Amino acid sequence: MLNSDQWVITKSGYLKVKGSTTVNTFTCVIPNYARPDTINIYRTKSVVKLSGEIALNINAFDCHNVMMTAQLRKTLKAAQYPHIKIRFISLNKLPILTSKKEQVKGWVEIVLANVTKRYEIDYQLYKDAQNTIHLTGVQDVNFSDFKLIPPSKLGGMIKTNDQLGIEFQLQFKEI
Predict the structure, then answer these.
(1) Which CATH code, of 1.10.10.10, 2.60.40.1240, 3.40.50.720, 2.40.128.110, is assigned to 3-174?
(2) Which Gene3D superfamilies match (predicted)?
(3) CA-based end-to-end distance of the chain
(4) Domain spans, the chain
(5) How many CB atoms lie within 10 A of CB 118?
(6) What does residue 58 show for φ and ψ, rounded to 5 degrees?
(7) What number of helices (H) and strands (E) belong to the chain?
(8) Three-class SS of residue 75?
(9) Which segments of the chain are extended strands (E)?
């Protein structure tokens, strides 16, 4: 027996990346993601499959430092590939969706600079009093996963570490 649901993005979400260099740390964010994308949920007795994706504009990144923002956009090849895409694949279980935050694991594909990588994501999900579903996902990735070279400055004296922490938060309504 196959059951299905749809969740549509309703309010501002964000994508945040955290990284470090040999001298400091940085956080860059794409704020206010609110395109009306839809995630389809198909569930059987043992499987929860998802379909749908979000496409985030790399040029919307803000690192709170003009030079760092420009360098990140250049490193991510925003001119040739202007979007980071997150495709939703599956969940390890169907969340109960109460006001209590629930931990769920799921698979996604991240497409960056025309390279696709699959990751298992740790999610937190809950539903608030207005029946809005809040989904937060976190995952570490490497620039090298996407065949990108971390930026460096001053002839290589300041180097960005390969690893980036990615966090995204979306809000949905069931339709």
Answers:
(1) 2.40.128.110
(2) Lipid/polyisoprenoid-binding, YceI-like
(3) 20
(4) 3-174
(5) 10
(6) -60, -35
(7) 1, 12
(8) helix
(9) 3-20, 25-33, 38-43, 48-51, 53-57, 83-91, 102-112, 115-127, 133-142, 152-153, 158-159, 163-174
Both tokens of 163, joined, read 């690893």
pLDDT along the chain (175 residues), means of 10: 76 87 88 82 83 91 90 94 94 87 93 96 92 92 93 74 91 87
Query: In this predicted model, what pLDDT tens digit does every residue of 82-129 receive, in sequence order?
Result: 999 999 999 998 888 889 999 999 999 999 999 999 999 999 999 999
Tokens of 114: 């025309």
- Taking phi over 0 as left and psi of -120 to 50 as alpha, with beta for the rest, 30 belongs to beta
Using CB atoms within 10 A of its CB, is residue 172 exposed (0-12), middle (13-18) or buried (19+)?
buried
